[in-house]
């Protein structure tokens, strides 16, 4: 038996809009687009990032306080130039999170509120 991890699905109120954000941010292409589900693929690889509609989506809060809807996961994105990557993320529509726990990492929120980290590596 072989098990192969291939990707992650993120819930979103508008999967097509969130997919376009990440396609622009990462330089990935949209491989499948349906009304309630969109799949991106990395160039030349099997890794995918998909977005599915969640009609009852509740935007996570990061960092979450008592009673806040917490993030359930976040994406880690390695960069070779943190300042340039941050400017690119903001041009794509990301918002810099108020709380930044590390000097060599920047936490951003995508348009649906999912946190993701840009880290210098």
UniProtKB/TrEMBL annotation:
VOC domain span? 2-121
What InterPro entries does the entry give? Answer: Glyas_Bleomycin-R_OHBP_Dase (IPR029068), Glyoxalase_6 (IPR041581), VOC_core (IPR037523)
One Pfam short name: Glyoxalase_6
SUPFAM superfamilies assigned to the protein according to its UniProt record, in alphabetical order: Glyoxalase/Bleomycin resistance protein/Dihydroxybiphenyl dioxygenase
Domain of life, per UniProt, equals: Bacteria
Q: What is this protein called?
A: VOC family protein
Organism name? Luedemannella flava
């Amino acid at each position: 038996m072989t098990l192969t991890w291939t990707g992650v699905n993120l819930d979103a109120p508008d999967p097509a809009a969130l997919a376009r954000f990440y396609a622009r941010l990462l330089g990935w292409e949209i491989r499948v687009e349906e009304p309630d589900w969109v799949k991106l693929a990395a160039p030349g690889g099997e890794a995918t990032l998909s977005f599915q509609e969640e009609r009852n989506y509740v935007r996570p809060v990061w960092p979450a306080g008592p009673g806040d809807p917490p993030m359930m996961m976040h994406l880690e994105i390695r960069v070779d130039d943190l300042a340039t990557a941050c400017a690119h993320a903001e041009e794509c529509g990301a918002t810099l999170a108020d709380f930044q726990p590390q000097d060599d990492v920047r936490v951003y929120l995508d348009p649906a509120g999912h946190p993701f980290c840009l880290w210098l590596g």
